[in-house]
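step 3/5: co-fold with 6-O-phosphono-beta-D-glucopyranose
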Amino acid sequence: MQTSTKPDREGLRPDSAVLVLFGASGDLAKRKLIPGLYHLYRAGLMPENFRIIGSAPAEVKMDVEGFVEVARSSVGTFGRREGADADFDGFAKSLSYCAASTSDFSGLAAAVNDARKETGAETAVFYLAVPPPAFIPVIKALGTGGLAQGSRLIIEKPFGYDLKSAKELNTAIHGSFSEDEVYRIDHFLGKEAVQNILALRFANGIFEPAWHRSFLEYVQLDVPETLTIEGRGAFYEETGAYRDMIVTHLLQVLGFLAMEPPEKLDARSLNAAKNNVFAALRPLTKADVVFGQYEGYLQEPGVAAGSRTETLVAARVWIDNDRWSGVPFYLRTGKAMGAEKSVATLGFRVPDLGRFEEANVPLRGTASNQLVLDLGDPGSIEVAFLAKTPGVTMDVAPASLSFSYAESFNMRYELAAYERLLHDALLGDRTLFNAAEGIERLWEASAPLLEDPPRPVAYAKGTFGPDEVTKLIEPYSWKLG
Ligand code: BG6
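step 4/5: write tokens
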């Protein structure tokens, strides 16, 4: 087993910082952000001096004691197992709270200034963990309140609803912040196994040349989820699976899977490489897409009668460039499905198998000749191939080579996706964050589909979608069922 690099390498501890958490009482703050910040604190990856100012509108009726209690219980409930212990009191000393409504940020400005003096922080980082309608008012209030200058903005998804709203959001952001102060977060890019796509491709002579239409017949990215939209009916009705997952997460991972070798592994080069993929993305239309809706969705609270919101998407996507011409990329994701997984599969062209006449040769498109990347936490990789079976005949049968993060590396220093990205933003490293241009292009390529979407087909909970989903990928098949 290898030991991974220790996080106390010089330069990994961010400079003093003030972090303002808008949406301090919300679900994301409770489930991911506060436990994540606490974990960074325990791992020695928070700045020596920092302050986290929780914020929400006055109607939320929270104060500093209330915020500390929310933080304590979210660390206890959602933190890592060894989480809720004596260290929390040390962490809690850095927590404060300031109610703020967008009509007047003067109280918040005073709180940020005081915290900067106390900690010696040069930068304030504003995290917008708020519902999308609040993005623009908060961004404008940060600008007019004099808080944006020299600060950083972390903004959550969904980044817009379509091209027009994404452009409006970018215009509002650029009215207060310069592009290099903006951190558009997509937590999938914070996942260790997703970043490993870049290592696997660009550090290995075994794989790098194979990542090409000459060797690959198709690529698929399969991200089924078992959860229903339980409790999120109103949000989901506005969003649907395409906006919630495809335009946000799966197409970004596709950017990693399909990019040309970036000049460097920095923000400029990675975004440029992803943007080139997105520029070559053939606009999606309903001819290449199946929408599904799980049975029972219409009975969920907050869902409109007769709603046509999709809870599942399967799409065939084409990248019209020299590397990928003629290679279909299949994407699938959905709620209430038969597995909870994130798996990218590269299907290789199979040689003529006629010479193995006697053998029980699996058909083209089945599980042999594949490179399978499980993008879960922790991830794994499998190479599926055909090998001779022992004995006097020249039979071949499926065999595999596998790598698992958990079995091969010491995972002690692993960071969860949000932890990694929070730490990057505190360091001022935008490598894993998304640029305005790429996001706008994804909305542009999605427009024909979103303007004229297919009608969702019903599927039973716990399955992998309706038959149309299976047909879409033929003659291949979905890795997970
Ligand atoms: C979120 C979506 O961005 O990602 C959710 O809004 C989805 O609907 C989630 O369940 C999946 O993230 P993860 O990290 O659990 O795979």
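step 5/5: annotate
Residues 187, 225, 244 surround 6-O-phosphono-beta-D-glucopyranose (CB under 6 Å).
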